[in-house]
């Protein structure tokens, strides 16, 4: 699929009402207290409390007990429920799982591997066309994050000392990847190819392994 023609309902990219802004911020930043939400979004503590409670009532947030940052009792933080995560693009997960099951039945694991390889080759060609002409690692990573965001991954690039971090706060193919982790394997290989031989890419956090997001560290010599 050509990333320039992707029209997923990416509400996360354009949060609207207050409670949607809260949901989006918690999705990208991870569990946080009501006070932290209020501070980050520049709203009053009471407004944050009301918006959080609406999301809890709708089944989109749940309270978690988090260790205290220093002395004192544990603090309560708010995190997205499964229903909350489902508000973000999922690339038609139910249909995808059905299709993967049908391919396994009809063509076996070898047939599914060939499909994943074909998808990876098509994606590689599209990404390389966009990324290869760019000079410098930072420009290439920014373009990669732009492409991934257009596909629903909510991607961004950050500097971490001498390294770069490619961070994806959402996985729109999570259901497919849970059913067949070959999808994730090909993505890691593709990222390594795009950054070039002088850099190395490692996955530090992984949504499928219970992480809040997928984080890739890019190291240069």
From TrEMBL:
Domain of life, source organism: Bacteria
InterPro entries reported for this sequence: WH-like_DNA-bd_sf (IPR036388), WH_DNA-bd_sf (IPR036390)
SUPFAM superfamilies documented for this protein: Winged helix' DNA-binding domain
Name of the protein in its database record: Transcriptional regulator
Record organism: Pandoraea horticolens
